[in-house]
Amino acid sequence: MHPFVVLLLPLLSAGKVLDTSMCLVRPSYIGRISSRAPGKIFHPRPDDIGTFVQRSAQYQVDTMMEFDAIPPSSVNCTLSLVLPQHYQVEGIGEGMGLNVWNVNEHLPRGQDGVYGLVWERAPEATTLFGETGDLQIEEGAANRTLTSNGTSPFKIIGTSKCSKLMTFRVAIPAEQKTGVVSFEQTLSPLAGWILSFDCESL
């Protein structure tokens, strides 16, 4: 993966320029945990780097992600979900959206530095960092995809003080009794979860 990217073009939110130069960090780790297999370690494959969340009456699947390429002098870290036009977001459920939670600790790693993440030992959600709102997934399509209005690919989730490691837990809201959402992290086009901060602070 390429965790650090500098974007020199203006970033847009609701059609407005955020800045002419922002530093962007992609997740250093992103993987799923499932209450259906609480002791199973999920090892992401190179072709399976993305978000998968599910909620049903029987079990729940969340996605954990961590950003560890954040320079120590960074300020005003903003988490966004980048959804370019025609980018595929698969899902089942009406009015589907995602909650992004702060967690009580960073993701556990073994002595070899490899993540050993399972449901029963995953960091617990604490406070709500932000939410995506309705992802507007077309239920009728053969491959259910995001309906983009073309105004901006950036959905800002929230902003907070930067730290060396920033960890989040992504889940379907509890009030949404059932549903599934999945999408991939890609570089071309730039899509998925992105953490941005002001390059001028470096």
**What is the CA–CA distance across the termini?**
23 Å
Strand residue percentage: 35-45%
The average pLDDT score comes to 78
Class of secondary structure makeup: mainly beta
CA radius of gyration: 16 Å
Task: Describe the sheet with the most strands.
Answer: 8 strands, antiparallel
Quickly list its features.
single chain, mainly beta, about 0% helix, globular, disordered N terminus, signal, Ubiquitin 3 binding protein But2 C-terminal domain-containing protein
Summarize the structure in words.
Keywords: Signal. This is Ubiquitin 3 binding protein But2 C-terminal domain-containing protein. This protein starts with a strand and ends with a strand. The chain has one domain (about 30-65, about 85-185). The chain is globular and about 50 Å long. It has strands at about 5, 10-15, 15, 20-25, 30-35, 50-55, 60-65, 75-80, 90, 100-105, 125-130, 155-160, 165-170, 180-185, 185, 190-200. The model is unreliable at about 1-20 (pLDDT under 50). With about 200 residues, the protein is mostly beta strands. Strands 5, 6, 7, 9, 10, 11, 13 and 14 form an eight-stranded antiparallel β-sheet that branches.
Q: Care to give the gist of this entry?
A:
This protein is mostly beta strands. Helices cover 0% and strands 41% of the residues.
Task: Please outline the helices and strands.
Blueprint: E1 4-7, E2 12-13, E3 16-17, E4 22-25, E5 29-34, E6 50-55, E7 60-67, E8 77-82, E9 90-92, E10 99-103, E11 125-131, E12 154-160, E13 166-171, E14 179-184, E15 186-187, E16 190-198
Antiparallel strand pairs: 1-4, 2-3, 4-16, 5-7, 6-7, 6-14, 7-13, 8-12, 8-16, 9-14, 10-11, 10-13, 15-16
